[in-house]
Design goal:
Number of domains: 3
Pfam families: CUB, Xlink
GO biological process, one term: negative regulation of inflammatory response
Protein name: Tumor necrosis factor-inducible gene 6 protein
InterPro entries: C-type_lectin-like/link_sf, CTDL_fold, CUB_dom, Link_dom, Sperma_CUB_dom_sf, Spermadhesin-Link_domain
Order of helices and strands: HHEEEHEHEEEEEEEEEEEEE
Structural class: alpha+beta
Largest sheet: 6 strands, mixed
Shape: flat
Number of strands: 17
Keywords: Cell adhesion, Disulfide bond, Hydrolase
CATH architecture of the largest domain: Sandwich
Distance between the termini: 47 Å
CATH class of the largest domain: Mainly Beta
Number of helices: 4
CATH topology of the largest domain: Jelly Rolls
Strand content: 25-35%
Radius of gyration: 25 Å
CATH superfamily of the largest domain: Spermadhesin, CUB domain
Amino acid sequence: PALLEAAEVRTCQDFVFKASSSSSIWREQLRIDSCRMRFFALLWTLGFLLKEARAWSYKNGIFHNSIWLEQAAGVYHRESRKGRYQLTYKEAKAVCKYEGGKLATYEQLEAARQIGFHVCAAGWFDNGHVGYPIVKAGANCGFGKVGIVDYGRRLNKSERWDVYCYNPNSKECGGVLTDQQKIIQSPGFPEEYQDEQICYWHIRVRLGQRIRLRFLEFDVEDDTACLADYLEVYDSYDDVAGFAGRFCGDYLPDDIISTGNVMTLKFLSDASVTAGGFQLQYHAFNASFFSQNHTDYFH
């Protein structure tokens, strides 16, 4: 049923009160019953919407339903620098250990999921299990279910997946940013960044806003086609869609303006040469104020 406008609800309530306090004929009683049914349908619909909103954690005009939510409850997702699904069980444990952590347990993964950790990518976790956390059910991820999608304990430890690590004291490398403006820096900036880094920053501002990303300082190992160290920008909430560009070298890229209220940055460094790093700034602005004279460009 359609939601009733506030005025219509008040009218309905007034009608029920007046009609029920008089000796109305049976047709009026039918109208009363119909009005009551619409009113209770409204309450049921509002209850359903509130339940859904809690699953997505709506706060300050922002939905905190982040994919790739780094460092939630000490749990974070990692993939091989070669790409998704490239780590054996032994390699997965080594990745977590290298960062001072260990494989996340099922309980740690579930605790992180309950505060919004949602990743549509299967990875190793403790005791040789493979799975991933789902906060919001979807047709394309999690088989329409909510919870930990657990593929079970894998007998073949040479299978290749991503990994879920646990380290409550891990260094800051990425995260979910919901401020109206903020400075983003490479790990260790202004010192040189370290080898073998993979960091994700997921920017989410209020619905109806857009994001301007400005490069303040930039020095990332130069390489043909940026195949060694690089910073990638995505005009979306993950690194799957909305590719905006890959950057390396020491020139300052132009500003980038999002088409919506989300943007993702991915920084990756290989095992050899490093450089000075980068410092960026983003700020949110209302899309209605955006002049048509500006150009949305993604390099």
